[in-house]
Amino acid sequence: MSSELKKRKVPNVEPKGPPTDMSIKENNDNAQDMLQSMKAVLEQNQVQMTKMQSEIDGMKERISHVDKLEKKCAYLEDKCTSLEKSVEVLIKHWKHSNPPRKPERSYWIDKGHEDSYIVEVVDEFFNDIDNVISKIVQGCFNMNLGWDDEGTSLIHDTAFLAHWEKLMDALKLCSHLVRDENISLFIGYIQLAPSTLKVLKKGLQVTKLTSLRLLHNDFPEMREALEGIIGIVNTQSSMTEFIWDNNTIDNMNDANYLFESIKQHPSINSMQFENSCGENVNGYNLLCSLIDGDKTFDSIDLDGNGICTMGNTHLPDYIATNSRLQTLHLSGNGLNDNDATLIAIALRQNTNLRQLHLCSNDGITQIGYDALTLAIFDSTSLNSTVDSNHTCTIEMHGVVPNHNTSSEETNRGAKIYSILSSRHREGTSVHHLDSELGDDSLGLVPHVLSCMQRCSDSNAVYNIPRLRIDQFVAVRPLSIFFELLKSWHMPALYETRKRGRAEVEAVKS
Fold first, then answer.
1. Which of 75, 216, 308, 508 is most buried, judging by how many CB atoms fall within 10 Å of its CB?
2. Number of other CB atoms surrounding residue 267 within 10 Å
3. Cα–Cα distances in Å, from 225 out to 129, 195, 218?
4. Contact yes or no for 141/207 (Cβ under 8 A)
5. Among 450, 460, 458, 448, which Cα is nearest to 489's?
6. DSSP string spanning 407-456?
7. What is the biggest distance separating any 2 CA atoms in the chain, rounded to whole angstroms?
8. Would you say 331 and 357 are in contact if contact means Cβ atoms under 8 Å apart?
9. Which residue, among 485, 412, 409, has the nearest Cα to 449 in the 3D structure?
């Protein structure tokens, strides 16, 4: 091994000469470029460090601000707790303080009132006020004053003002008890004079009413009363429901003033105006003012206002737009068969309206009712059934079969299955399917069977006790399946499957 190493020749390495001026310059240029690059990187790092330091300083400042806010919140919580205890003491003292004086019986007799009025109306009003105040102190803010059904109205008297004021004082004292609870005020069969409305407006400013209902209030001066009520409504930014019931307005300008004010309110989405159009007020124009504007409502109730369309189509045109309106009450008006037919056509394009009330429109006869029924359930064919409306329940001399508690898909499935059940009882299922599906019926067999299974699964199939069309009585799905499997394209399907197997075997061989 050593002899072999000795025999190897060491390669000659020529000594490098001294560096030339060119190589020195090139090396200097490279070094200069590296220095410039490093300098640029350092500058970028410096900028990033400065930015990070600025962000750190900002975070420290925000943390310091948060600490101050936490301390301030703790202080305010302690102060609120202290104030709540003080208010509790104040409420106890206020409850046991001298209540407003109730006039003696002789006071009312001297004013010409009978004993029945004093006992059944005046004394009941005082009891209502006391009961509502007791509920407010306990944290219940659903305030019901007066009567919800027909009765004798309480006539305004200055002796009542002190009791209204005490009610408003209770609201002011106990407003801290309100959390997210809905606050409603109902005043029925109580005359509301301007002086009473002023007391209510001042006291209700501290509340967040969600609903205001006024029933048969016999306003002495309508325009002044409307201004007072709209003044109350405008202070209630959380109000979602306004109900004006049996308070007749005889001037169209007054009615427009009320409707425009409600339309301009930011949160009211439910408007009820029942039996309140006087002889000089056009109920149809009021309806158009609600549906033609930019504001959309969830619920509109204009029962008993003598609404006649005179051939105009604003109402069906609006329904066809499929707005967000879910409930529409138009019972007790002057709609006719032409209106019903146009509404029926519009309903086929609407999926949002859930309830349509059309009772006691004497102009709608069996012709109009049949048109509306076909819009909800056209059983001529499966296609016409699918194209029907499956979301709206029409209240008119009975109920057209849409369950407003069921989904659109469930209602549609229930109708389809009821048709299949009827055809099965008549033994005509195959005939109808062939005529409706045409030449493509063979290829659609699996889809039809699958669809029938889904429809039979609908919860509504066996829960249609109010289904008006008596011949549509659901049968068990197995019976329909057996009929179709026995008679509908089964030989053809079997032959198709047999040919398919033969072709497969031929390919294999």
1. 216
2. 11
3. 22, 10, 10
4. yes
5. 448
6. -HHHHHHHHHHHHHHHHHHHT-HHHHHHHHHGGGGTTTHHHHHHHHHHHH
7. 151
8. yes
9. 485
Contact (CB, 8 A) for 337 and 367: yes
Strand order in the sheet with 209-215: 142-146, 183-188, 209-215, 241-245, 270-274, 299-301, 327-329, 355-357, 393-395
Q: Provide the CA 437 distance to its chain's centre, in angstroms.
A: 40
Q: Collapsing DSSP states into helix, strand and coil, what is residue 341?
A: helix
Comparing CA positions, the residue from 236, 235, 224, 234 lying closest to residue 196 is 224
Beta strand residue intervals within 112-195, DSSP E: 142-146, 183-188
Please state the length of the chain.
Answer: 509
Nearest in space to 392 (alpha carbons), one of 460, 455, 339, 344: 344
Q: Contact, 342 vs 312, CB < 8 A?
A: no
Would you say the C-alpha torsion 463, 466, 467, 473 has a positive or negative sign?
positive
Q: Read off the tokens for 211.
A: 């609903």
User: Strand, coil or helix: what is 340?
Assistant: helix
Q: Nearest to residue 429, comparing CAs of 482, 374, 493, 496? A: 482
Q: Please, are residues 305 and 283 in contact by the beta-carbon 8 Å criterion?
A: yes
Q: How far apart are CA 51 and CA 71, in angstroms?
A: 30
Q: Which helix (H) or strand (E) holds 215?
A: strand 209-215
Work out whether strand 241-245 and strand 327-329 pair parallel, antiparallel, or are unpaired: unpaired
Look up tokens 């206002």; give the residue.
305
Residue 199 to residues 166, 192, 435, Cα–Cα distance (Å): 10, 11, 73
Question: pTM for the whole thing?
Answer: 0.75
CB atoms within 10 A of CB 236: 22
pLDDT in tens, the chain (509 residues): 445 544 555 455 455 556 566 666 667 767 777 878 888 888 888 888 888 888 888 888 888 888 788 878 876 776 666 566 556 555 555 555 667 888 999 999 999 999 999 999 999 999 999 999 888 888 788 899 998 887 789 999 999 999 999 898 888 777 766 655 678 999 999 999 999 999 999 888 878 899 999 999 999 999 999 999 999 999 999 999 999 999 999 999 999 999 999 999 999 999 999 999 999 999 999 999 999 888 899 999 999 999 999 999 999 999 999 999 999 999 999 999 999 999 999 999 999 999 999 999 999 999 999 999 999 999 888 889 889 999 999 988 755 667 766 788 888 888 888 888 888 888 887 777 777 776 666 666 666 767 766 766 654 444 444 444 444 455 777 777 777 777 665 665 555 554 445 444 544 55
Query: Residues 183, 142: contact at Cβ < 8 Å?
Result: yes
d(CA 229, CA 408): 40
Contact 432, 362 (CB under 8 A): no
Side chain identity at residue 412, one-letter code: R
